[in-house]
């Protein structure tokens, strides 16, 4: 500016000199414009440069359009708006001619820029934020962006605001397009969380919460405390265990108050009695102990406690740690009134049994016939002489009704020639038996016996049974008649004894019994004939010389019949010929045709039964015939051409087995014969094919067309399919598929040397000549684009604009602070970082970054913190420490599930909404198990100890067998778990256990049958005892008129000492043996008795009863599972022996 003024000043000085020195007729102002065209921006100023003479010329500057540009008096032009105008300059001076000139002015539109605001918070883009900038207000979109256009250069102020966030303000120097990243921070509020004595609140203290977030407070009372109230902002919300502030927009306070737990104690009774509490109060504090006393009413007994108290202790203490309900059970006293008859046969008793205290007992004794009632006694002391005796039940009592028998007289007499024993007047009690022995003298026999004057026939003994009146018995005798004998027939066949056979002998006919025996008595001595017959058997005849008791063994043979089996030509029958068959038997025949034949017919006894392959004669009782005939098989030969247009075939039809079949195949024009096939399998390559007919056959003559070759080739980078020399039949079509390798494209395809373009397939139609097809390929190139979601960056290695097919690029996701890389999406998946991407196409990959937080789990049970619990969360498993804590870091936001588990506890599964650092409080509860027990069989015993148990408790089971049973084992799901009746274990699961019992084994003791002459040995055997036997005791009886016992010995294999007592006078043997346990499961000889005969004939040695410990028993066997001194008496099978004395 100074330079311009200086130039103007010089010009004016020069002009003054000229004007004062020169003398002109007229004067001209010289005005020269230096800057004829001015360009400037809006708001910009520039001064017009000019020279003027004379220098004191007056200059006037005028803008032709002041809306575009203005000009000052000194010639300074200022741009107002874009456009063009002129500045007029007028130069004037007195006595000078005025001069006017113009300067062109162009006002340029100013440069403007775009400013983009990207607004986010710690979770990502923020939509709906207000951006105040450049005189405008704009709201950010879903990507958190607000874009301002046509912004002039310069320093510009901005303010970004959104409800719940702190405002962000600043300046930006606009000198080009600008990107402004704004991170908003949420407003935070304080929630003051406090807890009174007796519990805690979590989280506690001054808790910071971001605007709009939610937070949950957990209120946890200590053991023995309960929540009294929760107060939020001074307002009570009740005794809740958690409280949530949702969408926080201000400060808050929360306070939890606690109080000691109190409980009620309810007592109930079952039966008649009362329960007293000490102390007796409506409620009790946690941990307080109460003494309970159960007092039964008169005549009642306290049984036990149930509900929240168990056992039978009285009084009993209960600790109050919850509301309790206790029931005292009373039962009325019961008494057993036992009543019996003495003797048992003397009468019957009614009224005995079980009675409640105070009941009236009415006992009635009724004498049986022949008896009379005497009195009632208790412990041998008379209590009543009335048969009907009544009293009140106040104790257990055992009473005996005593009876006595009437007595009768039997008068016994004998005539000459013998005696009767006993004789004379014999006294007999009512109902007793009385035996009389009648003995003839030498040379006499018993002629007759009269009882009460009536003959009962000649016999050597007579027994009055159930005597109920007086009687007489008289025996008479006569000289002996000739001797008679018994003849026994034993009839059998080849399979054993024959029942129902007719035996004719000594004028009688008798049928054999189930043992095949027929017994004839009273047979006089001499040679006697017999005949034995039975349907289906051949008769057996013979003689027997009777000079004593005789046994005749007869073996019958069954009748036989003939079945004549024959077969015609072409097959056979089996068996064939004359086949012998026993009476009543079955016989099967098999009919088999020869190769090439089939069964035509089968005739039985001349009657056709059809073309069967087997026939069974059942229950044969007569002769039969069977005859089989056969016939040759016939076959069908089916022929065809494949394809039908390929040619013709001849020679098919029907043939008999063994015929020769001649087939001929003739190819049509353009075809040639290939082969004959049957079921797809080649059988001949000769067009003329001959064979022998042995089966139905279906044959195909195969023909084929002429073929051409198409040569298919492919260059590097792909393939053609099919490739190589491809054979094509005349008139057929052939398609080719062109496939580029991965990373290649088809470049060109040529058919018979001519290009047809980059096609992916080509078909030769109606091929009638050979051809060629060739393919060329070229490599692919690709681009790789990366994006991010959240805050972070992605780097590529190598970093290039394009990549060749198959090139591997390493991508690395770099999270910003407070963020974590989550996953790849787009053309890359997974969470590996860095990750490799193989370029096999244009790729777009997005790295997803997420905010991460810390989640802390506090695990406890009703006794405090739980260490070693497994917390499964966020894909990890962690074990709680000594404080019951498990801490998980880098947890992404969102609802996430967790499972807390520990052996013996119930699992806890839930979700936590992770929208910040979180603390999760978990209370575990121990598992409970049901232990179910039962007895198998139910009648075998009882099983006790089952119930509900807490994990880790000790379970004590016991099994008690009932009479007649013994304990075997405990089983679970059929598998043995213990052989101890008392079985203990720790409760770790539900279990169902069965106490198994078995009946005490029923063994067998048997006396061996024997035949003896003079002296003999009788063996005793035992078997079927399941347990080891330690002792055997029994009593044997025998007929002293037949046998005399000389000695007894124990079997040496038992290793038992033997004690025995022999009483030949009354026929009693008392046998006792014992020692170490012996296995008597199998048949084992246990003892031997040596006897001598007294008189011939058949006799029995058997078992009798005796009294042991005031109880009648048949036998006693000691089980080694019992104490050695205890003798047990199961129902053992006793089998007597039959002794035959010659």
From TrEMBL:
Domain of life of the native organism: Bacteria
Domain named Bacterial repeat: residues: 189-260, 263-333, 340-405, 408-478, 561-633, 638-705, 708-779, 782-851, 932-1000
One Pfam family per UniProt: Big_2
Residue span(s) of domain BIG2: 33-100
Gene3D superfamilies assigned to the protein according to its UniProt record, in alphabetical order: 2.60.40.1080, Carboxypeptidase-like, regulatory domain
Alphabetized InterPro entries for the sequence: Bacterial_rp_domain, Big_2, CarboxyPept-like_regulatory, Invasin/intimin_cell_adhesion
Protein's name according to its UniProt entry: BIG2 domain-containing protein
Annotated source species: Mesotoga infera
């Amino acid at each position: 500016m100074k330079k311009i003024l200086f130039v103007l000043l010089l010009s004016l000085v020069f002009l003054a000199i000229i004007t004062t020195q020169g003398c002109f007729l007229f004067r001209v102002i010289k005005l020269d414009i230096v800057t004829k065209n001015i360009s400037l921006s809006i708001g910009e100023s520039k001064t017009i440069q000019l020279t003027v003479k004379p220098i004191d010329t007056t200059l006037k500057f005028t803008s032709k359009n002041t809306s575009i540009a203005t000009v000052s008096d000194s010639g300074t032009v200022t741009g107002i708006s874009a456009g063009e105008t002129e500045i007029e300059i007028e130069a004037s001076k007195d006595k000078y001619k005025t001069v006017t000139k113009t300067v062109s002015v162009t006002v340029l539109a100013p440069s403007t820029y775009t400013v983009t605001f990207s607004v986010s918070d710690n979770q990502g883009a923020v939509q709906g934020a207000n951006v105040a900038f450049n005189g405008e207000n704009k709201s950010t979109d879903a990507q958190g962006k607000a874009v301002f256009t046509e912004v002039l250069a310069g320093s510009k102020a901005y303010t970004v605001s959104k409800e719940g966030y702190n405002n962000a303000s600043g300046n930006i120097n606009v000198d080009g397009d600008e990107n402004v990243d704004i991170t908003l921070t949420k407003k935070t509020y304080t929630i003051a969380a406090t807890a009174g004595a007796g519990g805690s609140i979590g989280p506690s203290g001054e808790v910071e919460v971001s605007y709009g977030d939610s937070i949950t407070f957990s209120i946890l009372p200590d053991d023995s405390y309960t929540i009294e109230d929760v107060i939020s902002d001074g307002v009570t919300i009740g005794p809740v265990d958690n409280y949530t502030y949702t969408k926080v927009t201000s400060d808050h306070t929360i306070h939890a108050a606690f109080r000691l737990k109190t409980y009620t104690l309810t007592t109930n009774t079952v039966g008649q009695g009362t329960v007293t509490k000490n102390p007796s109060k409506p409620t009790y504090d946690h941990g307080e102990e109460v003494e309970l006393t159960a007092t039964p009413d008169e005549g009642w007994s306290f049984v036990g406690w149930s509900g929240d108290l168990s056992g039978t202790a009285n009084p009993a203490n209960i600790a109050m740690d919850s509301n309790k309900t206790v029931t005292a059970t009373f039962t009325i006293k019961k008494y057993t009134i036992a009543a019996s008859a003495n003797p048992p046969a003397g009468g019957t008793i009614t009224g005995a049994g079980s009675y409640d205290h105070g009941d009236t007992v009415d006992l009635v004794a009724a004498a049986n016939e022949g008896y009379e009632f005497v009195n009632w006694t208790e412990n041998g002391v008379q209590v009543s002489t009335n048969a009907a005796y009544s009293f009140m039940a106040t104790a257990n009592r055992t009473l005996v009704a005593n009876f006595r028998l009437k007595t009768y007289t039997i008068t016994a007499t004998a005539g000459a020639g013998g005696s009767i024993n006993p004789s004379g007047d014999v006294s007999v009690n009512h109902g007793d038996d009385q035996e009389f022995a009648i003995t003839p003298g030498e040379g006499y026999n018993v002629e007759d016996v009269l009882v009460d004057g009536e003959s009962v026939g000649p016999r050597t003994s007579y027994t009055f049974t159930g005597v109920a009146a007086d009687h007489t018995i008289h025996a008479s005798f006569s000289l002996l008649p000739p001797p008679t004998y018994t003849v026994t027939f034993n009839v059998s066949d080849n399979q054993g004894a024959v029942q129902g056979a007719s035996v004719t002998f000594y004028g009688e006919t008798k049928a054999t019994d189930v043992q095949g025996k027929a017994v004839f008595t009273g047979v006089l001595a001499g040679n006697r004939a017999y005949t034995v017959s039975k349907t289906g058997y051949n008769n057996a005849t013979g003689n027997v010389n009777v000079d004593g008791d005789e046994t005749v063994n007869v073996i019958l043979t069954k009748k036989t019949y003939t079945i004549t089996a024959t077969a015609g030509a072409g097959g056979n029958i089996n068996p064939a010929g004359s086949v012998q068959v026993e009476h009543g038997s079955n016989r099967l025949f098999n009919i088999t045709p020869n190769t090439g034949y089939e069964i035509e017919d089968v005739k039985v006894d001349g009657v056709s039964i059809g073309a069967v392959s087997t026939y069974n004669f059942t229950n044969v009782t007569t002769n039969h015939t069977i005859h089989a005939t056969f016939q040759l098989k016939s076959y069908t030969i089916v022929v065809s051409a494949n394809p039908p247009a390929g040619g013709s075939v001849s020679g098919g039809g029907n043939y008999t087995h063994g015929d020769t079949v001649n087939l001929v195949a003739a190819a049509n024009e353009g075809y040639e014969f290939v082969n004959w096939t049957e079921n797809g399998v080649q059988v001949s390559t000769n067009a003329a094919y001959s064979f022998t007919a042995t089966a139905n056959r279906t044959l195909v003559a195969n023909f084929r067309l002429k073929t051409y070759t198409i040569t298919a080739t492919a260059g590097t980078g792909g393939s053609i399919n099919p490739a190589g020399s491809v054979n094509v039949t005349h008139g057929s079509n052939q398609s080719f598929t062109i496939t580029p390798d991965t990373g290649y494209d088809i470049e060109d395809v040529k058919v018979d040397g001519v290009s047809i373009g980059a096609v992916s397939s080509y078909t030769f139609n109606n091929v009638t000549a050979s051809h060629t097809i060739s393919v060329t390929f070229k490599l692919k190139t690709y681009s790789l684009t990366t994006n991010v979601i959240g805050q972070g960056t992605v780097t590529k290695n190598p970093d290039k604009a394009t990549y060749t097919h198959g090139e591997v690029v390493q991508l690395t996701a770099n999270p910003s602070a407070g963020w974590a890389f989550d996953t790849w999406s787009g053309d890359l998946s997974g969470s590996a970082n860095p990750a490799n991407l193989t370029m096999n196409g244009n790729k777009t990959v997005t790295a997803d970054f997420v905010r991460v937080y810390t989640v802390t789990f506090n695990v406890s049970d009703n006794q405090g913190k739980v260490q070693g619990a497994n917390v499964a969360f966020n894909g990890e498993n962690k074990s709680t420490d000594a404080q019951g804590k498990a801490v998980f870091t880098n947890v992404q936001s969102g609802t996430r599930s967790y499972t807390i588990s520990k052996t013996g506890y119930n699992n806890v599964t839930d979700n936590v909404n992770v929208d910040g650092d979180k603390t999760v409080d978990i209370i575990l509860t121990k598992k409970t198990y049901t232990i179910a027990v039962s007895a198998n069989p139910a009648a075998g015993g009882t099983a006790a100890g089952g119930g509900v148990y807490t994990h880790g408790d000790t379970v004590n089971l016991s099994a008690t067998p009932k009479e007649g049973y013994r304990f075997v084992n405990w089983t679970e799901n059929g598998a043995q778990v213990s052989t101890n009746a008392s079985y203990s274990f720790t409760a770790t699961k539900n279990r169902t256990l069965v106490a198994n019992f078995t009946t005490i084994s029923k063994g067998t003791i048997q006396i061996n049958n024997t035949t003896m002459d003079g002296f003999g040995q009788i063996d005793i055997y035992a078997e079927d005892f399941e347990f080891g036997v330690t002792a055997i005791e029994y009593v044997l009886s025998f007929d002293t008129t037949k046998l005399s016992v000389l000695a007894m010995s124990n079997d040496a294999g038992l290793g038992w000492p033997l004690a025995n007592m022999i009483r030949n006078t009354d026929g009693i043997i008392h046998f006792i043996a014992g020692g170490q346990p012996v296995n008597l499961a199998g048949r084992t000889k246990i003892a031997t008795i040596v006897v001598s005969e007294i008189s011939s004939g058949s006799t029995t040695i058997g078992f009798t009863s005796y009294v042991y410990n005031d109880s009648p028993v048949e036998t006693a066997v000691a089980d080694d599972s019992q104490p050695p001194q205890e003798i047990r008496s199961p129902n053992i099978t006793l089998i007597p022996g039959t002794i035959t004395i010659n």
